[in-house]
Amino acid sequence: MTVDAQELDNIEVELFTQAMQRRHGYDFSQYAPASLKRRVLQLVEQLETRTISGLIERVMHEPQLLPRMLDGLTVPASDMFRDPSMFRGLREQVLPLLASYPQINIWQAGCAHGQEVYSLAILLEEAGLYERTQIFATDLSERALHQAQEGIYPAREAQQWSRNYQAAGGTHSLADYYSARYNLLKLDQRLRRNVTFAQHNLVSDGVFCEAHLVLCRNVMIYFSNPLQDHVLSLFRNSLVRGGFLCVGMRESLDYATTAATFTPFDERLRIYRLTHQPERQQA
Ligand SMILES: C[S@@+](CC[C@H](N)C(=O)[O-])C[C@H]1O[C@@H](n2cnc3c(N)ncnc32)[C@H](O)[C@@H]1O
């Protein structure tokens, strides 16, 4: 039997996925295959193993490498006020509606290094809603969560983030919310006072909280269609009726079977609203 190089990679990626699941309990089997393969091959380079099989050996026998592997597989890249028009939409269209609730719960799933969490906190602060809001910021990667809690970023990002903040309708200076030292900037830790960071795996864990707004941006893009559906049903079971869901600008609910329960609130900004809520069920 002849197996070409591509097919060999595919077999090895499958074995790698099984090793991650059986050795560490992380299930990547329903991630989109092409991008998963790309990231596994990047890990091969970063960890200087000759083949994916070499990587499997390290999965099995070097547990201390797990955080690094998870980082490589999950791409914890983010920005403050990423896609500023979406944040402007939240500020101008969504927050005024959330203001009618005495207590607001927000679930930010896939928070990576926390830039989106701090952006949200700033929006809520400026809308006078932060005091009665609880933000639950979750991610698969403990390493990413640790960085998110620290809120320290390279200062070279400041200019771009400032522009994003202004484009998102910011009325102050972004510099009011951080202190800069040497080549780092540290977000004002008061922005964290109503944030709970927690590890949560969208593949295997259940509903997280009863939420009025769920943000899960640039996460489902890495998932296969059935996994996207599973995650959307988690969000559906988590949201209150009339609650909002924001996904990334390159993501959409068009092909999801769960989509019928969401109506576009602002389709261009990928903001949806839960209109129909079936019986609450354990996801
Ligand atoms: C590209 S970042 C998106 C960050 C941020 N939401 C944004 O749009 O800027 C994707 C994040 O999703 C997280 N992630 C990937 N798979 C996940 C899963 N199964 N459960 C929870 N988080 C996951 C990764 O760890 C990573 O931090």
Q: What overall geometry do the principal axes of the alpha carbons give? A: globular
Order of strands across the main sheet: 6-2-1-7-8-10-9
> What share of residues are in beta strands?
15-25%
Structural class of the secondary elements?
alpha/beta
The strand count comes to 10
Contiguous helical run count: 9
Rounded to an integer, what's the Rg over CA atoms?
A: 20 Å
Report the end-to-end length measured between terminal Cα atoms.
Answer: 43 Å
**Bound ligands:** S-adenosylmethionine
Q: List the domain count as a whole number.
A: 2
Task: Please tell me about this protein's structure.
With 283 residues, the protein is an alpha/beta fold. The protein has 2 domains: 5-74, no CATH class; 84-274, Rossmann fold (3-Layer(aba) Sandwich). Helices cover 40% and strands 19% of the residues. The protein has 9 helices and 10 strands. The protein has helices at 5-24, 33-46, 52-61, 66-74, 84-98, 115-126, 142-150, 158-167, 225-238, and strands spanning 104-109, 133-139, 152-154, 178-181, 184-187, 195-199, 211-216, 239-247, 262-266, 271-274. It has a 7-stranded mixed beta sheet with strand order 6-2-1-7-8-10-9. A 3-stranded antiparallel beta sheet has the order 3-5-4. Helix 1 packs parallel to helix 3, helix 2 crosses helix 4 and helix 5 crosses helix 6 (115-126). It is globular. The N and C termini lie far apart (43 Å). The model has no long low-confidence stretch (mean pLDDT 94). The site of S-adenosylmethionine (SAM) has 20 residues, from loops. This is Protein-glutamate O-methyltransferase CheR. InterPro entries: Bact_Chemotaxis_MeTrfase, CheR_C, CheR_MeTrfase, CheR_N, SAM-dependent_MTases_sf. It holds the Pfam family CheR. Residues 1-263 form the CheR-type methyltransferase domain.
